[in-house]
Amino acid sequence: MSHTVTGAAHTQHTSALRLTTGSSGTAETAALDRMKAVIVLLVPLLLPLVSAQTFRWGPCPTPMVQPNFELDKYLGKWYEIEKLPASFEKGKCIEANYALRPDKTVQVLNVQTYKGKIRTAEGTAIIQDPKEPAKLGVSFSYFTPYAPYWVLSTDYNSISLVYSCTDVLRLFHVDYAWILSRSRILPAEAIYHAKEIFSRDNVDVSKMIPTDQQGCDVPYEQPPAVPYWSYSTSDFWNYVEYFRNIGAYDRINEMARTFFAHQHLGDTLGYEVADQHEH
């Protein structure tokens, strides 16, 4: 995660724009006209910011979320199967890893391969309201607010539907939606059913695109099933890059020593390469 996601609270917005009559109505009408003028001027400035996202007019929808959501069952690894376009997810082999910290916040580690390199993003997720545990907030920086991460439906073992939405002045909104799976492949009928659930809750997923999960056969999070030396050079460097990103330098040293020794380059070169990746 992956995966990052947002949502908005549903209010009766029609009454908010209703004008009163009389002299005060004239003033309110003028104020509303000025607001509309400002919005018209702002939209061209905001559009480039959302051009790579899914942009729609009107406020965010308010889909139903998973009842009796159990965070502990949700933790672990999820693979991205399909998504609404997102500028921060342009790679392949996208996955999201969730782990509970001692302070009860959730560590979020999103991983993707982009232009041949492993990219990671670490953030924090929290349950903002204990009464609605399926509505989490996620942030990837101390300087940004928590963005809603709503779990609409999950069986915890195979599939999860996640939604996120941000609206601007209730004039338009940018939304995100993800179909996640515990495995890299999800049956077509499961994907079809997932999209039906989104549509039922007024989330337009017609622009969803599949995530490439092909060629993601290097199990970075686990020791290789075969000796290090038998991997191709590209797989070796993929391991090095991944372990460097997560700070597992001991794994880099172990790989380098074995790999280069079997390439008849000696142990010293292996350690030198590992040292270069540590700094």
Give a nutshell description of this structure.
This protein is of the alpha+beta class. Helices cover 32% and strands 27% of the residues. It has an eight-stranded antiparallel β-barrel.
Helical region count?
Answer: 7
Strand content: 25-35%
CATH class of the largest domain: Mainly Beta
CATH H level of the largest domain: which superfamily?
A: Calycin beta-barrel core domain
Between the first and last Cα atoms, what is the distance in angstroms? Answer: 26 Å
State the helicity in percent bands: 25-40%
Main beta-sheet strand count, sense and barrel state: 8 strands, antiparallel, barrel
User: Using only CA atoms, what is the Rg?
Assistant: 23 Å
Low-confidence stretches: 1-24, 38-43, 45-52, 265-279
Morphology? globular
What's the average pLDDT? Answer: 75
CATH architecture of the largest domain: Beta Barrel
How many β-strand stretches? 10
Could you say how many structural domains there are in total? 2
Helix/strand order:
HHEHEEEEEEEEHEHHH
How are the strands of the biggest sheet laid out side by side?
A: 2-3-4-5-6-7-8-9
Determine the CATH topology of the largest domain: Lipocalin
- Estimated structural class: alpha+beta
Can you tell me about this structure?
The structure is a single chain. This protein has 279 residues and is α+β, with helices and mostly antiparallel strands. The protein has two domains: 215 residues, Calycin beta-barrel core domain (Lipocalin), CATH 2.40.128.20; 51 residues. 32% of the residues lie in helices and 27% in strands. It has an eight-stranded antiparallel barrel with strand order 2-3-4-5-6-7-8-9. The radius of gyration is 23 Å and the shape is globular. It holds the Pfam family OTOS. This is Apolipoprotein D. It comes from Cirrhinus molitorella (mud carp). It is found in: Secreted. Its main location: secreted.
